[in-house]
Design goal:
Elements lengths: L1 E8 L5 H14 L5 E8 L5 E3 L6 H6 L6 E5 L7 E8 L8 E9 L2 E4 L10 H9 L8 H8 L1 H10 L7 E5 H6 L1 H11 L3 E5 L9 E3 L5 H9 L4 E6 L5 E10 L2 E10 L8 H5 L15 E2 L6 H17 L3 E11 L2 E8 L17 H20 L9 H4 L7
Parallel strand pairs: 1-2, 1-7
Antiparallel strand pairs: 2-3, 3-4, 4-5, 5-6, 8-11, 9-10, 9-11, 12-13, 12-15, 13-14, 15-16
Length: about 400
């Protein structure tokens, strides 16, 4: 049986969404194959362990009395999670702390949404410690998170995206007139988005120049880089998930969110109609499978595969499309969708548990490939130079 450490929570505005995804992953992992070990990443970045973290009531009540700090050691040959255990002193012995093993980890399942979890940060941490994990690599996660770099990559692969430009918070603070003039050239209406956030947080639709300052100030609260894009009028949003790795990929059923206008808010995505976690699918109404003509379905499926492969994604990701009067464009790729996007695979006969199996298998393949790389090179450099030399 493999030990899967499920990491969830995190230093992100999507913290609560991540907790729900983590709970769902733990519940749906095949218990005949995996021992699921919860690791809750607090809002201030601590790693907590404990059996009570498998119970959603712990988070609803914020009662973490049965939990404790856990940690990895800086040893690439040791994949164990440890914690400290208090020992009482006896008649002839002193009390104190001893180190105990919380879990001997075979694979980390990252169920962390947003910053420090979906952006390559935690992936780089696990790479440094030589700990296998599911999903995208450090680089592909980072590219998939940064909406500007992501779309630059998509453009280079001939994948259609909306026209836009990125601005830094410092630019906005120091020269608002120049930024306003540049946005005027894009043409209103526009969307103003923090580059590295998801779940529609910090995003505004700006209809004219009178609304711009408020939207920019809001976005600047969440990120140092802001993407401003032209806004399509009355688009259809169609989403498609992809599963696989290194070109060996399949697409899910398509979905179409319903009952929204201009922008799906955080509340639309996660709150509306969503009163429990066990089988929640992200809250808003949707058609799944979406009612689309065959030609559009085929176009979206091919673009989804192309986008997934363009950033060298692994496991599963959801690609969100906008269907406009002038054509179909990729809005973004979500490399760790809420609830792992399990409901997009059910129409194809792939259960939540089977989806998790496949995601873990692809993570093992990617980790195996990484293990084939050489990370040292024998040289005689020290004998031929000193530390004061120019290299």
């Amino acid at each position: 049986m493999k030990t899967i450490a499920v990491f969830f929570g995190g230093r992100s505005v999507e913290h609560e969404v991540s907790v729900i995804t983590g709970m769902q992953v733990i519940e749906n992992l095949d218990k005949t194959k995996y021992d699921a070990v919860p690791v809750y990443v607090t809002k201030d970045g601590r790693f907590l362990g404990g059996e009570s973290l498998k119970n959603f009531k712990t988070f609803k009540s914020s009662d973490f009395s049965g939990t404790y700090d856990v940690y990895f050691k800086a040893d690439i040959n040791d994949r164990k999670l440890y914690h400290k255990v208090e020992e009482k002193g006896g008649l002839f012995s002193k009390g104190g702390e001893r180190e105990a093993v919380y879990a001997d980890v075979d694979m980390v399942f990252t169920a962390l949404h947003g910053t420090f979890g979906e952006d390559g940060s935690i992936q780089g941490y696990f790479d440094t410690l030589n700990i296998p994990y599911i999903g995208c690599s450090t680089l592909s996660a980072a590219v998939g998170m940064d909406k500007k770099i992501m779309k630059d990559v998509f453009r280079s692969h001939g994948i259609p995206v909306m026209n836009g430009e990125a601005f830094y918070r410092r630019e906005w603070q120091e020269d608002k007139d120049r930024v306003r003039a540049a946005i005027e050239k894009i043409g209103y209406p526009v969307f103003v988005k923090p580059v590295n956030l998801g779940s529609s947080i910090g995003i505004s639709k700006v209809k004219d120049a009178s609304e711009l300052d408020e939207a920019m100030d809001l976005a600047c609260q969440y990120d140092r880089k802001i993407l401003v894009e032209e806004a399509a009028e009355n688009p259809r949003e169609i989403n498609c998930a992809v599963l696989g790795y290194a070109g060996d990929v399949i697409t899910s059923a398509l979905e179409e969110p319903l009952g929204w206008k201009d922008l799906l808010s955080f509340e639309d995505k996660y709150v509306s109609g969503n009163k429990k976690t066990g089988g929640s699918k992200e809250g808003n109404a949707r058609n799944c499978p979406a009612d689309v003509e065959d030609s559009l379905k085929k176009e979206i499926e091919e673009l989804a595969k192309k986008a997934f492969t363009a950033i060298d994604a692994c496991g599963t990701a959801r690609i969100d499309f906008l269907v406009t009067e002038s054509g179909t464009v990729v809005n973004e790729i979500n490399t760790l969708p809420g609830s792992m996007g399990f409901y997009l695979w059910e129409p194809l006969g792939i259960s939540f548990g089977e989806l998790l199996d496949r995601v873990i298998e692809y993570g093992e393949v990617r980790a195996g490939e990484r293990g084939e790389n050489m990370y040292s090179y024998e040289s005689n450099l020290f004998s031929k130079t000193g530390y004061g030399s120019k290299l």
